[in-house]
Design goal:
The chain is built from 2 helices and 4 strands, in the order E-H-E-E-H-E. By secondary structure, the protein is an alpha+beta fold.
Length: 93
């Protein structure tokens, strides 16, 4: 199992719009084979900071997700202040 965190910064004042768009994306991503969760979080300290937590079965599922995101991510244009900070983790235990 592989976990992913993606911290996103919205353009100023667009945190709520980014969350709304990410919820739309999440509704599609959870249908992907190998996806176990795709959760959208908004910072309580900075509404323009959004964290996505994802889990996938393996690297093949992540590769398929990355391809799918090319189609799903079109609504993010103008909402992101830069590239997300993405980190991958393996589930231990």
């Amino acid at each position: 199992m592989i976990g992913i965190t993606a911290v996103m910064s919205a353009t100023p004042g667009n945190g709520d719009a980014l969350v709304a768009e990410m919820k739309k994306i999440a509704a599609e991503v959870v249908k992907e084979a190998g996806n176990h969760c795709y959760l959208v979080h908004q910072s309580v300290d900075d509404a323009d900071t959004v964290l996505i937590y994802e889990q996938y079965t393996d690297q093949d599922a992540i590769a398929a997700h990355q391809e799918n995101m090319k189609a799903l991510g079109g609504g993010l244009k103008g909402l992101l202040a830069g590239r997300p900070d993405v980190k991958l983790f393996t589930l231990e235990g």
